[in-house]
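Internal ticket #5521
Category: modeling
Description: The requester needs a full-assembly model to guide mutagenesis choices. All entity lines are attached below as received. Residue total reported by intake: 588.
Assigned to: D.W.
Attached entities:
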Amino acid sequence: MLSDRIRNRFQTLTTTPRSTGEYRTPSTDPTAPLIQLESVSKRFGSVTALDAVSCAFDAETVYGITGPNGSGKTTLFEIILRLRRPTTGVVTAPSPASIGFSFQQPQFYTDLTVRENLTVFSRLTGHVDSDWKETLVSQLRLDRVTHRAADNLSGGFQKKLDIAIALLSNPEVVILDEPLSDVDALSRDRIIELLLAHVDNGGTVIISSHNHERVDPIVDTTIELYDGVIQ
Amino acid sequence: MIRDTLVFLTTEAYGARRKIAVVLIGFALLPSLFMMGTVGFDKTLPEDIPVGIAPGEEATTDDDLTLTQGGVALLGTPVQYDTEAEAIRGLDREEVYLVVLVPPDLTDASSTAEFQIHSHGSAVPLNDATGLLVSFLNFELRSLLPGDVEVTHEQRGIEFTLSEYLIPSFITLFVMAISLLYIPYDIMSNRQVIDRVRHQSRLESFVGAKLLFYAGMMTVVLAAFAVMNHFLDYRIHPLRVETVTAVWLLFLSTAAVGTGILFLTKMNRMTLFINFGLLIGVVGAGSLLYPVGFFSSTRMEIARLLPVHYLNVMIRGHFMRGDAFELYADWYRLIGVYTVCCLAFCGGCIRSYEWRT
């Protein structure tokens, strides 16, 4: 009913608290974690997506965030990426330029070709080694589709293009939401190789999945989320 | 078949319930705005057009001007100027559509009062009516004044065709439709990449690039008009620096408002309905096709509150009359401030969007 919708909307507006969460830059102390969340909560109206989450992420480690759909994994990522402000709590994280990401829904220009997308995001990042770009293209087996519009790619290729864009600038931290779903076995192995090489070079990888078995073989530490709470 | 139709009707009803805001705006607010847009239309014979009155000679007194105003009031809305030059400048800027130059000694029954009436050939919707208006004024002044009255009519500039007159108005409508409908739609169609843009760059840059790209495209549109102008032997000036500048200002200010509304609604599809309503409202109220005051003085007052009206006059002036920047220098200053305000509104809406998500 319309009256219910209006009441719900009003409740959302009146019950959504002002965001008091804050961001801090990581300290220069090499022993300090690269990313740290302290009592971070995120509320959307009366829905609590994250509830007093505290966790830390160090360099040279692969983290797995697991949990069922709606457990708060994507919200956690969006907060680390500064795409959403926490309602309360403190987030210590490097600048967005130091973090690459790929979400479940690929984020690129659908009307541009694979090559054009890589060029655009290389230029936005500003410091991409062209050899590294070609390595990503061949490692992720995108070379066959570089001249195809991204919109016309299969789900697997779209996922790989999104991961390539996330890794383009060789960022300190890579956050990947369900990176191993929708891709064939060979591509999955190639993605894992790239991620492990990234960690060997001093980077941090945070991947999420609602399926433990998919990420367990490659993660060093697993964080399990359920209803916005770390288990 | 009837049963299936009823089932589909039920589906539409379910869908409409979920999209109640869109339905309300599309089917209730828009028709209401359209109705509001018709407020003040009454007659098609111009009765309330602004008519400038200025002394034709140094000896013309305030009493002479006041007397003439009485005669003009039945014809249109009198606007008094101190000098002939100011009145002609007002005619060139479409502040008035006729100028009556008043001779001295109107109350002297023994002399002949020689009035001069000026019109402009670019006011095409008034061209046919001008002869009638001059005769009417002649009649009014004869009945008002004690002596003989002689009225001469002079037309400034060349007389344009209706086709030529409609082109700048079409440009204004086209630019506004692109700015309010296509630009927000285009940004919405890039919605999937917005988070990456926010992460790797700034939304302001993303939007700024779009506005600049399409401002460039407006020049392409004007170039197309220039080509057609050559083939059709029209006497318009689509690619003058002044014309391009005025079109860019109209585009930037309107697109900034349209895009700002898009971010204000968190990139909701409802934006297109809101902007469509805005387009209809501004086109209806801005007297973009007819001279202001053609239908009523109320509509003239409303139109003159809208920056789009002035931009439309400037575009028409550059397009048809080949007017220089200097003629509209004061308007350009205000439109510049208005454009900056529109861009600031857009920037504020983007910040608000980022803050609210």
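Resolution: model delivered.
Comment from assignee: The radius of gyration of chain B is 25 Å.
Ticket closed.
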